[in-house]
Write a structure and sequence with these properties.
By secondary structure, the chain is mostly helical. Helix content is about 65%, strand content about 5%. The protein contains 20 helices and 4 strands. It is globular, with a radius of gyration of 24 Å.
Length: about 500
């Protein structure tokens, strides 16, 4: 023990150098990911694999327990950030189809994949169904990264449905995986009624506690007056951890609860709101980088060759049959247009969640767990290319891209630890807008409103009375909340920031 203490801080410094190099490499190479269309998560995963024991990095890492814990914390941060950026109005509009996809869709996908694994590749039924369960849910990190991190703007209903599904479907996949793993270890058969009851209990507890903690957290942050702005993100981070931990300890779904808390907090006017959103966005990206790097370190690429044909076959079955068929059955009652059904069925991105779930059978000592982990990992990698790389092309092909202007190169915002009676809103001036070609002095601004800044390409323009608005301008306007409807009418639809 004494010699170990004397060696410090060298081992810690070495660990931080490795972490810094891997994380910096992930960020720098992410630009190449954007140009190639490869989901950025797959790039992080590839860097982790290259740094692992089979790659040039040669880092030995096979701690499934540590990977499971780190992955859980990372998913909490990602789901919480996803909830913060999900408008409550969008939730109300698409909650029914998203909830069906997140429950019935997960079960249907798991069953179809289990049947394929058994009939086509000879897996025993218990292992086949467990494999289906681990890959049954879409991944929030992958979906959020593709839809938000790539600058891709979808039509509101289909985009929100996909995001909500990915945020809500982890609980069902976790329940299926844990139950089937326990049955496999104990040699028991699956009790469908017990599984249904457990699913209802876990989701009910998660939903109730999520709503309670979300409403309580909104009230707390609105009333909490801190002198240091940096403490507000600490409080919201504490709420995120509590939102996962408390329901889980009470046999509820922590993943569902933390997503609900994020939605409720994000839909409220909070102190230091702009700063909170920025901090949690950074934490979510940090979590995603760290999670995929560690999961990449965990796998041995040479072992993937042994399951390549099985993994490829199941990947293609998932992309072309299991996911589309499950989506079709789930969305049929909601009368989605055919192109939206096809798109939702195609964009069923898998990522870290299936890999993290596949570590659970390994930790439980289930027979065949290591082979199952390798197959699941292979499926996730193939899924990153197909359909992952085709998402932008498919969006354009089906005409589901929203007509959203490019964001301005400069952003004006108000950061305050107080709740102010006023907002700063951005409006895009398009060619058809009635305000295009008008002078600032000619526009009927409400008495308490004023144009603060015009962003025109790479130029910042100070708005004055004789300043003429041009098509393509981004105009930042300060106003009271009650004046926003009139301003939207005057400028057109408000820009999504």
């Amino acid at each position: 023990m004494e010699s170990q203490v004397l060696m410090e801080p060298l081992p810690t410094a070495f660990l931080l150098v490795i972490a810094g190099v891997l994380m910096a490499s992930s960020v720098l190479l992410s630009r190449a990911s954007g140009r190639s269309g490869l989901p950025v998560a797959m790039l992080f995963l590839a860097i982790g694999m290259a740094a692992g024991s089979d790659g040039p990095g040669g880092i030995e890492f096979n701690d499934y327990g540590a990977a499971y814990r780190l992955g859980t914390v990372a998913l909490v941060l990602i789901l919480f950030d996803g909830g913060l950026n999900t408008p409550l109005s969008a939730v109300r509009a698409t909650i029914r189809p998203a909830a069906v996809l997140a429950t019935v869709g997960v079960v249907a996908t798991a069953a179809l994949m289990g049947v394929a694994a058994h009939l086509l590749f000879g897996f025993p039924w218990p292992v086949a169904l467990l494999l289906g369960a681990t890959v049954s849910s879409t991944d929030a990190a992958a979906v959020f990264a593709v839809l938000r991190g790539s600058g891709l703007h979808l039509k509101r209903r289909v985009g929100t449905t996909l995001e909500l599904e990915s945020g809500l479907n982890d609980p069902m996949a976790v329940i299926l995986t844990v139950t089937l793993t326990q049955n496999l270890v104990r040699g028991e058969s699956l009790d469908g009624w017990a599984l249904l009851l457990e699913s209802i209990v876990e989701m009910s507890v998660g939903s109730v506690l999520g709503v309670g903690l979300g409403l309580g957290g909104r009230l707390l942050i609105k009333r909490l007056r801190l002198q240091v702005a940096g403490l507000y993100p600490v409080m919201t981070l504490a709420l995120a951890f509590l939102a996962f931990g408390l329901p889980t300890l009470l046999h509820g779904s922590g993943f569902l609860a933390v997503y609900v808390v994020g939605i409720l907090l994000g839909s409220e006017t909070l102190r230091y709101r702009t700063g909170l959103l920025r901090v949690h966005d950074a934490l979510a990206w940090l979590a995603q980088v760290a999670m995929f790097l560690v999961l990449g370190l965990l796998v041995f690429p040479r072992q993937l060759l042994d399951v390549a044909w099985v993994g490829l076959g199941l990947s293609l079955f998932l992309a072309f049959i299991a996911r589309p068929l499950a989506v079709l059955l789930c969305l049929l009652p909601f009368r989605f247009p055919a192109r939206e059904v096809v798109y939702t069925g195609w964009v069923g991105l898998r990522g870290a969640v299936p890999i993290i779930l596949a570590t659970y059978p390994v930790l439980a000592g289930a027979p065949g767990a290591h082979d199952l982990f390798n197959v699941v990992f292979f499926i996730v990698v193939v899924n990153g290319f197909l359909p992952g790389m085709t998402v932008p092309w498919m969006t354009r092909k089906l005409g589901l891209a929203a007509n959203v202007p490019e964001p301005p190169p400069a952003v004006l915002e108000i950061a305050s630890t107080q709740i102010l009676n006023g907002e700063l809103s951005a409006f895009y001036i398009n060619l058809a807008s009635a305000s295009a070609g008008a002078r600032i002095s000619e526009l009927p601004f409400p008495p308490e409103s004023a144009a603060m800044l015009i962003v025109r390409g790479q130029e910042l323009v100070a708005p004055k009375g004789d300043t003429v608005l041009k098509a393509g301008d981004h105009v930042y306007v300060f106003s009271h909340t009650e004046d926003l409807p009139f301003l939207r009418l005057m400028f057109g639809q408000q820009e999504d920031e």
